[in-house]
Amino acid sequence: MLLMTPGPVAVDERVIRAMNRPAIAHYHPEYFEVFNETTEMLKSIFGTSGDVIILPGSGRVGMEASIVSIADPGDRILCIVSGTFGRWFVQIAERAKCEVKILEGKWGGAINPEEVEKILKEEEFKAVTVVHSETSTGARNPIETIGRICKGHDVLCIVDAISSVGCMHLDMGKMNIDLCVSASQKGIGGIVGLALVGVSERAYKVMEEKKEICQSFALDLRRWRDQFFGHDYPRPYPVIPSTHLVYALDEACKLIVEEGLENRLSRCCKAAQAVRKAIRALGLELFPEEEIASDSLTAVKPPEGISESDIVRTMREKYDVMVGGSVFELKGKLFRISHMGVQASMNYLIPTLAALERTLVDLGYKVEFGRGVGTLIEGI
Fold it and tell me: Which of 212, 265, 312, 337 has the smallest C-beta neighbourhood within 10 Å, fewest atoms?
């Protein structure tokens, strides 16, 4: 089965082999060396001089940690929502007893930064949350501009970069991002099971000034600086991540470093452009407008009269290629092809486009065989 979903993504064989070693205690000096090496590489990938914290769980664990670590009950949070995953920040902040204001944009569109500026001029907030690459729609938001606006109003900028870190340009320092959430199983190319959170000094300062102790013992990000980072061995983990998943993450980060981060980002960008050209060559319509489309994945509207679920099922069951379907409010409106990490290559994209062509013909849609694949090859 060729895995072309936007998370979990297909992984390099080296990442799988990295886990094939005997069990080790998380407090063994040898493991601490690997953990330290991994966090240093992550700092480079996130573009931060601050900490990158590794937590057990998926990206939404990192989202929750970022909110509960900075917020007191009653704090005002502005949540930008232009897709399914932006809405998760709303639910997390409400559970933390924050007062939430929603700035809703077009689903499949990007938020207008002027709207953010206007709200922050008129009202006070502790933080703004926004999704960089909205995996549910295939669109991206203007993070750099939003980060600059947040800094200008002395408001924390919290970014869901779960499907953008490692395959789209992101620099926490230059983009004024205070809390940057990602996960191991997407653009970085690791195995599902780890949440990653980059933390700025400004975010730590806000944590220090909290009126109440963090409601979560395991997800309190401040404890990592106070108990772990900068301390000599032995040192206690605030919460213990899986040793073998960290081995896999370490190898995935090494692959990025060896390729060069800019080369990795360029490869994903070229793959994204080529896939979109191939989709258009087949007469299909992209879900988001192309100028705001994510480099992580391509979202495609199914042809009229053909269901998204039939396309996804036929590609999986008949041609052994698994692409992503649509989720929640967007159910039935699109299917999604990922091009993160190893997926952004001929070995993965050619059989995916070939399977899509055959699937469309099977479902009664006229396609000139080879048209999409040929366009893809020309683009890459």
Answer: 212
Strands (E), the chain: 2-4, 51-56, 76-81, 99-104, 127-131, 133-134, 139-140, 156-160, 179-183, 194-199, 285-286, 297-301, 321-323, 335-338
Q: Which residues of the chain have pLDDT under 70?
A: none
Based on the fold, state whether residues 119 and 25 are members of the same structural domain.
yes
pLDDT digits (tens, 9 = 90+) for 94-129: 999 999 999 999 989 999 999 999 999 999 999 999
What is the C-alpha to C-alpha distance for residues 339 and 184, in angstroms, rounded to an integer?
16
* Tokens at 365, concatenated: 């849609």
Question: Cβ(357)–Cβ(370) under 8 Å?
Answer: yes
Q: What is the structure's pLDDT at 233? A: 77
Number of domains in the chain: 2
Supply the range of the domain harboring residue 220: 12-257
Q: Peptide bond preceding 351: is omega within 30 degrees of 0, i.e. cis? A: no
CA gap 310, 275 in Å, rounded: 21
Give the span between the Cα atoms of 283 and 266, in whole angstroms: 26
Q: Does residue 276 share a domain with residue 317?
A: yes
Strand partners, 293: 139
Find out whether 58 and 195 touch, Cβ atoms under 8 Å: yes
pLDDT of residue 230: 83
We report the CATH number of the domain holding residue 149 as: 3.40.640.10
Using an 8 Å Cβ cutoff, are 260 and 80 in contact? Answer: no
Are 112 and 82 in contact, with CB atoms under 8 Å apart?
Answer: no
- Scanning the structure block, which residue is given the tokens 């993965």? 348
* β-strand partners of 54: 196
